[in-house]
Write a structure and sequence with these properties.
Layout lengths: L11 E8 L2 H11 L3 H4 L1 H5 L10 H23 L10 E7 L8 E13 L6 E11 L5 E12 L5
Antiparallel strand pairs: 1-3, 2-5, 3-4, 4-5
Length: 155
């Protein structure tokens, strides 16, 4: 993970893809979001979704899983520890289209903005746009995230 100063606005990171199987959709839903349209085709057929679809939280948790793996790989490749701090939250979370069993979602993150922090000069704030796109090129998920990143120490 690079320092705040090294991050480039506009840089897009491909985080990877995830194939949503019926078994994984049901397993996640049973544990975290047990609504009928996440538990069976029959339950989904009775709703407007028409067939088994993933919980939006499942879609979001896969983004986080892939982002963490991407950051770890960067740190290993660069031989540096992560310089990430906490996230002050996110905005604009959108589940735009259902993620159906059998869909493969490709996730990405693009750095939209960098902000200095007067109250914490050792940190900078990154604002990143994130999305998931299905195998047909349709955006199904998006949000704007924020994270603190360490600044390079003064020499």
């Amino acid at each position: 993970m690079t320092w705040f100063e090294d991050m480039v606005v506009g840089e897009r990171r491909e985080l990877g893809s995830y194939h949503f199987t019926p078994e994984e959709i049901v397993r996640f839903a049973q544990a975290y979001d047990p609504q009928p349209f996440h538990l069976s085709d029959e339950g989904a057929a009775a709703m407007h979704f028409g067939r088994l679809c993933a919980s939006g939280w499942h879609t979001a948790s896969v983004w986080m899983k892939l982002m963490v793996a991407h950051i770890r790989a960067d740190c290993e490749r660069l031989g540096t520890p992560s310089r990430l701090g906490p996230s002050p939250g996110f905005t604009d979370l959108k589940w735009i289209r259902p993620v159906y069993a059998g869909d493969t979602i490709s996730y990405s993150s693009t750095l939209l903005e960098k902000r200095d922090m007067r109250t914490r000069p050792q940190w900078g704030l990154l604002i990143h746009g994130n999305e998931g796109v299905n195998q047909d090129g349709v955006t199904v998920f998006s949000f704007t995230g924020k994270v603190l990143v360490a600044r390079r120490p003064a020499a």
